[in-house]
Automatic annotation (TrEMBL):
The keyword Nuclease does not apply. The active site is at D8. Its EC number is 3.1.3.18. Keywords: Carbohydrate metabolism, Hydrolase, Magnesium, Metal-binding. Mg(2+) binds at D8, D10, D167. GO terms for cellular component: cytosol. It comes from Ruegeria halocynthiae. Pathway: Organic acid metabolism; glycolate biosynthesis; glycolate from 2-phosphoglycolate: step 1/1. It is an enzyme of class 3 (hydrolase). This is Phosphoglycolate phosphatase.
Amino acid sequence: MTAVVVFDLDGTLIDSLADLAAAANRMLSDQRLPALPQETIRGFVGNGLPKLVERVMTHCALDPERHSELTQLTLTHYNAGACDRTTVYPGVVGALDELRKMGCVLGICTNKPEAPARHVLSELNLLTYFDAVLGGDTLETRKPDPAHLHASFDALPSVGPRLFVGDSEVDAETAQRAQVPFLLFERGYRKSPVSALPHTLSYDNSAALPDLVRQIVQDEALQARPQKD
């Protein structure tokens, strides 16, 4: 039951919203602007830090010419407290352990910059599970461009079917464009109903992941089996 399983990070394996919101609000404080509610910032998450900052700037009517400057400032604040309140979703560690025991190889494809992604994974004792970590700045492209996901798969040994696990509209679009099975985590940062996102299977408890991977691997094997006359 081996497979190549690539995961999104924020909203899929970890709940990092509090630290992302804190970094954005520290940037706003530097501009002498009031903080935004965490739920408002939740709606800005999903396409990487530069896009999050762009959406915050638009919301607060900040000069778009300052985007590069304020993105770097937000990143500096984020790096200073990336794991202050970030937590691993329940069931994730057990699921990763079981997937590795099954012989699966695991990778990360995230729009978060690679260095902070690796830092957060290390601080949360998750980094050793993954044989490849591709961030939003690893390549010249990022999700939902399927090239980002294909490169993540290509960085891993080919031991079986390829599967992508994520939580958002961006992840669903990426998997669809890459033409790979998609497992949707229902408790992440998506803005649309589960039914509106294309997915193979969905789950709300990460402990279910190993069984879902087994199911997809079995289905892929049946589809690949030659049909008898």
